[in-house]
Amino acid sequence: MTVLCALPAGDTATLARAAEPLARALGLPLAATALFDAAAAADPANPADVEAARAVAEADLAALLPPGVASAGLSLRLNGEPAWAPPVRLAIAAAPRLLAVDAREAPWLGDLGRAVRAAPVPVLAIGPRYAGPPPTPVRILALADGSAEAAAVAPALARLLGDAAVPIELLAIAVPAVGERPEDREVELAAALEAVEPSLPAPAARRRVEPPRAFESVAAAALRVAAETGATHVALATHGRGRAMRFLLGSVAEALLRTSPLPLILTAPGGAHAAGR
């Protein structure tokens, strides 16, 4: 079992460095794949040309990988499918513990929600504001909002981390509904976090309900708490709907993807991985 990195064209190092601290905490090796589009690399009507181009691409991948990262082979792009689909298909076949992607630019930036919902495992993603490899030891800030969909982050982290001693802080940002007293919302979220905590792997550091500061979005509040607590990763379940990225990924997840200097650990809502949606 590995942490599988889906490398972007032209950069074999950044994503692997981003994934390495968590892979080390899990006691898992890093493996990497790169996209291979036969139609772009060779004449699809000539099988010999395709095989020759594929052999060159596989050799280039193996030669360019950073030390300590093994080649998982190429992700074959079929019939003009979206670029996120081949690495997800490889993850389904290879059964890694985690799929890592570089979502700093297209195509992953726009299609990450689809990839998370189709992947068989959680997805580690770095976005446009990624600030470099997180420090060690790994500490995870897990977000919940009181919904059943968001609570899926807890069992997903339990499956991902197994017996690894990675501390987790469970956080809810208390934004009251119109007409709701802030203290009532905080009490409601505290009870929701208490119900979620038993699904987390040990050691969970603590539960925290945090009201946003003036003009602070939920994503900004989460990143502030991450900085205050020394978190190295932010984990959450996506529970968007619809076709646009903000609906497939969820508005908070989208905002975090675009603004977080830390890697995100994204998991689909309950059952979505198993259903392959």
Automatic annotation (TrEMBL):
One Pfam family here: Usp
UniProt feature coiled coil, ranges: none
InterPro entries associated with the record: Universal_stress_UspA, UspA
Domain UspA: residue ranges:
139-266
Q: Would you identify the family this protein belongs to, as annotated?
A: Belongs to the universal stress protein A family.
Mind telling me what this protein is named? Universal stress protein
Please report the organism this UniProt entry assigns to the protein.
Tepidiforma flava
